[in-house]
C-alpha cells in the first residue's frame, strides 16, 4: 500500500526471490477467493511481509507452490503458493485495511483522486464485508479515525500518528495469536507501522509543502527546505524503527524455514534502508517522489 516493504532482489538467492513472488501471487489469488473478484486491484508487495510472518505459525507442510496461469500472466505459468491459513488471513486483513484507507483518503485527496477512490470504494466495501474479522476491522477503523483527528488538529508531532499506525499494524500482525507469539508479531507490526508512517511523511514533504496537505514534518520544520541535519535526524529515527523490527524478527520461530528468514531479514537490513535513501541528499538534489518499482 505504501511501497516501502520490499526486499532488495540482488541480494536474494534465485529460489528466495521466486518464493517471494510466489507468495505475492498466492495472496492475490486468495484475495479473489475471499474478498471478491476485483479486491486485488490495489494489491501490493507490502502484504508479503505479513504473509511470511504468519506462515511461521502454520503447519510447514501447508507451505507449497504450484505453477499456474492468471489474468495478469495468461500465457506462461508461474509459481504461486497454494492457499493456506496465512495467505487467507493476509488477504482478509488487507481487504479490511484497504477499505478503511480508501475511506480515510476521501477526505484528504483532490478531486480527480477522489473520483477514482469513489469508484473503487464499493469494491472494497464488499471486500470488507466478505473479509469478516469484525474485531480487527474495529481496531483498524478506530486507529485511522484517531490519526484523522490528529491530522485535523494539525498535530506537529510525527510520533503520535506514527504510534497509532504502529498499533494498527501491530494488531493486524498479531490478530488471533496468543502469549509470546502475539507479543513478538505485534512488535513486528508496531515498529513497521511507525516506520511506514514516518517514511511516507518524509518522502511527501516537498509535495505537501506545495499542496498544503497535512504533514507533521511540514509543521515541525515550518515548511522550510529540509537541511542535511533535518534529513539525518529523520533517517536516524527511521533506522531505529528498523532496529525495533529486527529485534522482533530475531525472536520469530523460523525453525527450518530459512527461505522465509532470509527474505524477512533482507527486507529489514537492505530493503527498508535502501527505500529511505532519498534522505541522503539535499532537497534540490533528490526527487522525494522517486520510488523503486515493484518487482515483476
List low-confidence stretches. 111-124, 282-296
The largest sheet is:
2 strands, antiparallel
Mean pLDDT: 85
- Order of SSEs: HHEEHHHHHHHHH
User: What's the Cα radius of gyration?
Assistant: 19 Å
Percentage beta strand: under 5%
Q: Which strands sit side by side, in order, in the main sheet?
A: 1-2
Give the overall silhouette.
globular
- Give the tally of β-strands: 2
Please give the alpha-carbon distance between the first and last residues: 16 Å
Task: Explain the layout of strands and helices.
Blueprint lengths: L13 H22 L10 H10 L9 E4 L9 E4 L3 H21 L5 H21 L2 H19 L6 H16 L4 H25 L1 H7 L4 H5 L7 H22 L8 H18 L21
Helix pairs in contact: 1-2, 1-3, 1-11, 2-3, 3-4, 3-5, 5-6, 6-7, 7-10, 10-11
Annotation keywords:
296 residues; mainly alpha; two-stranded antiparallel sheet; 11 helices; 2 strands; 63% helix; globular; disordered C terminus
Describe this protein's structure.
The protein has 296 residues and is mainly alpha-helical. Helices cover 63% and strands 3% of the residues. It has a two-stranded antiparallel sheet with strand order 1-2. α1 (14-35) crosses α3, α2 packs antiparallel against α3 (85-105) and α3 (85-105) packs antiparallel against α4 (111-131). The longest helix is centred in the middle third of the chain and has 25 residues, at 179-203. The chain is globular and about 55 Å long. It starts with 13 loop residues before the first helix and ends in a 21-residue tail after the last helix.
Summarize, please.
This protein is mainly alpha-helical and 296 residues long.
Amino acid at each position: 500500500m505504501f511501497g516501502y516493504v520490499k526486499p532488495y532482489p540482488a541480494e536474494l538467492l534465485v529460489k528466495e526471490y521466486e518464493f517471494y513472488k510466489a507468495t505475492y501471487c498466492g495472496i492475490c489469488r486468495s484475495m479473489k477467493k475471499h474478498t471478491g473478484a476485483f479486491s486485488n486491484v490495489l494489491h501490493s508487495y507490502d502484504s508479503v511481509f505479513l504473509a511470511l510472518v504468519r506462515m511461521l505459525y502454520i503447519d510447514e507442510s501447508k507451505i507449497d507452490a504450484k505453477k499456474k496461469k492468471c489474468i495478469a500472466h495468461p500465457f506462461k505459468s508461474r509459481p504461486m503458493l497454494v492457499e493456506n491459513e496465512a495467505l487467507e488471513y493476509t488477504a482478509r486483513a488487507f481487504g479490511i485495511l484497504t477499505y478503511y484507507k480508501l475511506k480515510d483518503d476521501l477526505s484528504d485527496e483532490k478531486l480527480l483522486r477522489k473520483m477514482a477512490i469513489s469508484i473503487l470504494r464499493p469494491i472494497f466495501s464488499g471486500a470488507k464485508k466478505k473479509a469478516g474479522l469484525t474485531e480487527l476491522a474495529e481496531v483498524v477503523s478506530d486507529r485511522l479515525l484517531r490519526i484523522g483527528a490528529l491530522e485535523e488538529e494539525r498535530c506537529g508531532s510525527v510520533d503520535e500518528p506514527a504510534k497509532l499506525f504502529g498499533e494498527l499494524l501491530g494488531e493486524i500482525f498479531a490478530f488471533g495469536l496468543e502469549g509470546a507469539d502475539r507479543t513478538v508479531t505485534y512488535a513486528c507490526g508496531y515498529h513497521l507501522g511507525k516506520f511506514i508512517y514516518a517514511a511516507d511523511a518524509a518522502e511527501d514533504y516537498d509535495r505537501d509543502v506545495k499542496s498544503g496537505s497535512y504533514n507533521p514534518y511540514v509543521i515541525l520544520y515550518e515548511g522550510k527546505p529540509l537541511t542535511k541535519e533535518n534529513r539525518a535526524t529523520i533517517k536516524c529515527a527511521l533506522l531505529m524503527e528498523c532496529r525495533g523490527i529486527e529485534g522482533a524478527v530475531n525472536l520469530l520461530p523460523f525453525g527450518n524455514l530459512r527461505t522465509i528468514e532470509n527474505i524477512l531479514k533482507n527486507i529489514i537490513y537492505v530493503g527498508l534502508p535502501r527505500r529511505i535513501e532519498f534522505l541522503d541528499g539535499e532537497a534540490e538534489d533528490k526527487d522525494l517522489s522517486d520510488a523503486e518499482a515493484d518487482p515483476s
